[in-house]
Amino acid sequence: MARLMMRNMDDNQSGTISAVKVSGELGRRIRDMGLVPGTDIRVQGRAPLYDPVALRVRGFTLTLRNNEAEHIEVEVC
Amino acid sequence: MEATIALGGNPNSGKTTLFNELTGARQHVGNYPGVTVEKKEGIYIQNEYHMRIVDLPGTYSLTAYSVEEVVARDFLVNEKPEVIINIVDASNLERNLYLTLQFLERGIPMCVALNMIDVAKSRGIKIDEKRLSKLLGVPVIPIIARNGYGKHDLMLAAADLSVEKKQMTPLQISYGDDLDRTFIEMEKEIRANDFLTGTYPARWTALKYMENDELILSKGQKQNSEVAAKLENMVKNVSVHLQETVDTYPEAMIADYRYGYISSIIKQGIIRKKGDEQNRLYTSDKIDRVLTNRFMGPLIMLLVLLVLYQFVFTYSEVPVGWVESFFGWLGHLASENLADGLLRSLVVSGIIDGVGGVLGFAPLIMFMFFGISLLEDSGYLARVAFMLDRIFMIFGLHGSSVMAYIISGGIAGGCAVPGVMATRTLRSPRERLATLLTAPFMNCGAKLPIFALLIAAFFSESKGTLMFFFTLISWGGALIVAKFLRLTVIRGAPTPFVMELPPYRLPTFKGLVIHTWERTWQYVKKAGTVILGISIIIWAMMTFPTLPDSKVQDFERKQEALRGAAPSAIVLEFESADKGAELSAEAQKLKERLKVIHSKKAETALRYSIAGRIGTALEKITQFAGFDWRTNIALLGGFAAKEVVVSTLGTAYSLGEVDPEESESLSETLANSPAWSPLVAFSLIIFIMFYAPCFATVVCIVKEAGTWKWGVFSMGFNTLLAFTLATLIFQAGSLLGY
Ligand SMILES: Nc1nc2c(ncn2[C@@H]2O[C@H](COP(=O)(O)OP(=O)(O)O)[C@@H](O)[C@H]2O)c(=O)[nH]1
Ligand SMILES: [Mg+2]
């Protein structure tokens, strides 16, 4: 068990969100899409230029920029 | 029975597809007042039902962050629909229910349309809709929007709800002890003071205060600042408390509990699925392995964009040709039947040419929207944004900006009118504005003949190389200006990219056709009104004041003199010959001489007109960029449409009307003119690349940006920018001795 920022996760790595450390519009959007603590996610891959990152969460695919993923803390196995 | 029914749901949940299925052709597209979000309304008629259906913009939530959310919320408040149909994607239930909960908390009669059950089924997902209905307390009807399955049951349920007219009790979710306690206090305060209770349920207002919703906060301030301050204070207290004890914000807590509530519903056997959902590879993921692959992805994307471009500009040539020949024929007809004079000039050059030129875009727009809708509805557009975002982000834009750039002429030869309209797919407001203001810098098809003319006259390098070079300049310019705008007038943090990559889906042909038709029709209506008006104004500027009689008589006398000097047989031959008939050498010579005088007259008249005077007056300034009055007039004419630059230059150089496609004579004249040099030509090319967009584009910018201010801005700012660049080039070049 280790905690790391989503930005630093490898492709195909899975984990559980432990905290979303941002408020305001960005925080709201992240949470609205279902990225709240306790949610299982898996990094699906990254764009050709390594940013943005694509996630599998709650059965759908979500993309966000690396600097947005920076605010999400994930517990990985 | 009659009722208003709103369709609400997440983007890509199938709202528009259901809307089309329900209303067919009985629909109307407009805008919500003051914003550029589309408002689609239609009528559903079945037996005794006659219901007004409104397609709300797709949203994930009901906060006040995006225009779409605000519009959807305002609609519910202001127009009070009898029923909301909440479309929910069955293959993506959890996230979709997040919005459903917010509708329920709002307390408007609602039924859930459980859409895409075909997709869910193919993924091995089965949903127990009866149990879901019981848990949510509203009807849940499974449908397949694509083929209309279940739509009548759905409307039956909606009709029942609107007949009952029963007041829904807003859903109350527990948000944890701390928040719940505060909510109770807040509600008490709200009820005691009738604070906003005319519009919102008390708990909803409390919730929005807790979520820090700016719109509601400012409404509250206006209604009763004392109560508002009290409520804000309660929120602050609990917020401090939460941060100290659990290190979180109330709004985060609210989202947590909502998702928790959803989980608790789903856990009660709502979803049955085969296999491991989280790690399962859907067909869509397999396609993405190729289409967004690090190496193949960009290549395929390039190919797709090239094909889109080809499709828009090559295949539309035939219908564009029809429109052009129709207006050509109409112009001819008018010329034949109207006496030479102002009326004829107005009808032919002002009305027919103006509207014809603009309607000529209609097929382009049609093809463009068809192509883009195909990419958007299939889900590919989201992948393009995903792959290119890293680059566009640097310039304060969004991955989807690429579409508008390419269509505007990012691949030389596009058109800014459909390009500006293509920014509609962008959901980030600031990025969208920066894109639509810079897209006109691309080299559209109408700028190309001017470049070709100048290249032929002044540059020996191959046309292909130079054109490529100019394309690079316009991309560079557009991106840099976009960055500049994002740092100044459209300043603001980047809109979060957080976006769904929807599964690949086959769009419906009906949807594509309806979509394409609506957009094209909107444009045509504009062309028929605003654009006709501007076209007439420009015509008047280039026509009035007309030459004084004495001047006209001068030219007539000269022509008479020529005729008098020629042998009468020749004059007779010349006058009685049919158009295009072979003339004897003598008669041909007479004809040319007469034409020279005629062209000289046209030049004098042009210079005498308002446009001519403006052009002449501007010479004092434009000389710094190397432009004389002739160029100035041509550039003024270019505001009507860029291809007019070439024909106006022709008139200004006494060559008569010059066909932009066959401009050898003009190119020769320019090459030999002492006022011109390669440096002037280069300066002019840069100016034309960057100066005010043609008015058809300006009209579209105004429409897409939602206010005329951005239209005025694009004319003023672009011209200033272009002039600065051209002057720098001309002055530096002159100093270096070019
Ligand atoms: N398989 C399937 N596809 C659907 C269904 N409803 C909509 N779609 C497709 O989903 C995509 C998005 O639909 P659209 O109506 O544009 O969604 P909107 O963003 O909510 O308006 C389109 O390609 C539709 O053809 C459905 O019930 N089944
Ligand atoms: Mg839609």
TrEMBL record, chain A:
> Is Iron included in the keywords of this UniProt record?
yes
Q: Does the keyword Iron apply?
A: yes
Q: Name one GO molecular function term.
A: transition metal ion binding
Q: State the protein's name.
A: Fe(2+) transport protein A domain-containing protein
One Pfam assignment: FeoA
Alphabetized PANTHER family for the sequence: FE(2+) TRANSPORT PROTEIN A (PTHR42954:SF2)
Organism superkingdom: Bacteria
Gene3D superfamilies in the cross-refs:
2.30.30.90
Q: Which UniProt keywords apply?
A: Iron
Q: Which residues form the Ferrous iron transporter FeoA-like domain?
A: 4-76
Kindly give the InterPro entries that the UniProt entry links to this protein: Fe-transptr_FeoA-like, FeoA, FeoA_core_dom, Transcriptional_repressor_C
